[in-house]
């Protein structure tokens, strides 16, 4: 069949993808600053299902990096990071700014004085309007004109509770690997056994966080990147992916350990600060050897744990 006339189907449900149900699928979620995308992977319904089911979990757990590194997403802005001081004061961090999460009201009954502290004029006006409902005599404009505006500096360290991992995140990482494999013309038959895992109807131990002593990829000094490394080796009967997000969180995904398809050796690197794809010859035979040893160690550990 001519490639142009080939029927394109959703890799999850198998329905034909048409103009009516077509959707843009970001292979690395857009919330994680992903830019690699395709309209030939998922129908709209399945795209929404995966997004709500587990991609949102990966987005939430990596939101702190997107904020702190001032990474621009293709659309929208990331939600603020929740932070707090050792004394329990709540703050929000976003767009390089730090502000108190809640306004402060201080009432001095002896002096019959109420003071209000807000992060900016807009929020102060909103607070005063809300307060005016309870105290009609308040003159909002008069208070704003007489308000003191000053820069404040943090006197304490901010504490951010951050974690990465869990079932939802591992499923999202698996989906990234599957979609990159399919984008590179991999055959769906080699990954179809993973759909029940993504759907939550079957458990599989196929994803591991990987933090080696020696960095696998060394970015440029001004670079923060997302990386996908895909290896399909029919001689070793292995199809696997290495995923690196923000050069911080690393994952290994075993897609198939009975692989007999064509040999694959694909790398995708995208600089999130420079907003450009990086073309580098990396991850040679040494990388493959390391991953084979890593898989052997993981299998041994899993076997020992099951005994």
General description of the model:
This protein has 307 residues and is α+β, with helices and mostly antiparallel strands. It has two domains: 7-70 and 162-306, no CATH class; 86-146, no CATH class. It is 29% helix and 21% strand. The protein has six helices and 13 strands. The chain has a six-stranded antiparallel sheet, sandwiched between helices. A hairpin with a 5-residue loop joins strand 3 and strand 4. Helix 1 (44-68) packs across helix 4 (167-183). The protein is elongated, with a radius of gyration of 25 Å. The protein starts with 24 loop residues before the first strand and ends with a helix. The model is unreliable at 302-307 (pLDDT under 50).
What is the N-to-C succession of helices and strands?
EEHEEEEEHHHHEEEEEEH
Q: Tell me the strand percentage band.
A: 15-25%
- What distance separates the N and C termini? 51 Å
- Strand tally is 13
What percent of residues adopt helix (DSSP H or I)?
25-40%
Report the total helices: 6
Query: How do the strands of the widest beta sheet line up side by side?
Result: 8-11-10-9-12-13
Largest sheet: 6 strands, antiparallel
Secondary structure class reads alpha+beta
| Number of separate structural domains | 2
Shape: elongated
User: What is the C-alpha radius of gyration, as a whole number of Å?
Assistant: 25 Å
